C-alpha cells in the first residue's frame, strides 16, 4: 500500500508539473522592411538567405515598394516597421509625431546615380533653361540640387519635369527631355542613345548618396536586440560577399529580383556602389565624442531641404535621424 501511495503521489506530481510547465515562447514577429529594387541592398537579402539572421534569432519580411512616398506612408501607418532608403529622404518625412532613425549605413553611390544629357550640353551650368526630368523630393532631386548649387544655379533655373527615375530615363531616351537624373539601367541606356551621354555621375560626389536602413523609433526602442542582429548580420554578409562574390551575387540577384535578377547585370551594377563593411559603418557613425562623416552628409541634406522648404520638421538635426547605438566603435 505504501508503495502504491508513493507511486500515486509521483504520478500526480508529474501531471501537475506538466500542467504548470511554462509554455514555449512564441516566435518573434518578423520585422517588415520595405524596399525598392536596388543593388545596394543585396547583403541584407544575403544575410536572410544564408541564415545569418535566423542564427541570431531575428526574422524579417521584405516588402517590395518601388516608390518612396508609399514606403513612408506604410511606415507611418505601421504596415511596415522599417525601410531601405537614402539618408536625404528621411529629412523630408520625419515629423514630431513620426520619428525614425537610421541604424545602419548600407552603401554609397560611386557612379550608380547620374545625369544623362544631350551631347551638346557640356556642363551642369549648361542645364540652365533646359528641360530636366527627375523625381521631385527624391534622391535624384537631392543630387541635382547639390550639383546645381555647385554650379551657381538652383532648380528654379531649369525647366523641371517631375517623373520617376525610370520614367525620366525613358523620356530622355525617347528625346522628350534635354536631360534626366536617374540610375541604372537608364544611365547606360541614356548613354547609348544616339543623342545621349552621361553628363556627371555620383563618382564625382563620394559620400553624398548613402543608403541606410531606417526604423521608426518605437520599433527601435521595443526591439533593440533585433536592431543589433540586423547590423551584425549585414556586416557578416558583406564579409561573406567579399570572400564568395560569385555565389553571393547569384543569391542576391535572385532575392532582390526585378531588373537585377540576372547575376551578370547585378555584378555589373555593383561597380556603381560601395558596400559598407564594419569599418566603413563605424566611419559613417563615428563615436559619441567624435561624430562620423554620416552626420555631415545628413546635415547637408537638412540644410538643402530646409532651404527648399521640404524639410519635414523645423529645427531637425543630424543626431535626430542617426542612431549609432548598434554599430559601436
- Cross-sheet strand order for the largest sheet: 2-1-3-10-4-11
Structural class based on helices, strands and sheet pairing: alpha/beta
- The average pLDDT value, as a whole number, equals 90
Euclidean distance between termini CA atoms: 69 Å
Strand segment count: 13
Query: What is the number of helices?
Result: 15
What is the molecular shape? Answer: globular
Q: What order do the helices and strands follow?
A: HEHHEHEHEEEHEHEHEEHHHHEHEEHH
Q: Kindly report the name of the CATH homologous superfamily of the largest domain.
A: Periplasmic binding protein-like II
* Overall CATH architecture of the largest domain: 3-Layer(aba) Sandwich
Count the domains.
2
Helix residue percentage: 40-55%
Q: Tell me about the largest β-sheet.
A: 6 strands, mixed
What proportion strand? Answer: 15-25%
What does this structure look like?
- With 329 residues, the protein is of the alpha/beta class.
- It folds into 2 domains: 31-107 and 207-326, D-Maltodextrin-Binding Protein, domain 2, CATH 3.40.190.10; 113-204, D-Maltodextrin-Binding Protein, domain 2.
- It has 15 helices and 13 strands.
- The strands form 3 sheets. Strands 2-1-3-10-4-11 form a 6-stranded mixed sheet, with helices on both faces. A 5-stranded mixed sheet has the order 7-6-8-5-9, with helices on both faces.
- Helix 6 links the parallel strand 6 and strand 7.
- The chain is globular.
- The relative contact order is 0.18.
- Mean pLDDT is 90; it is low at 10-26.
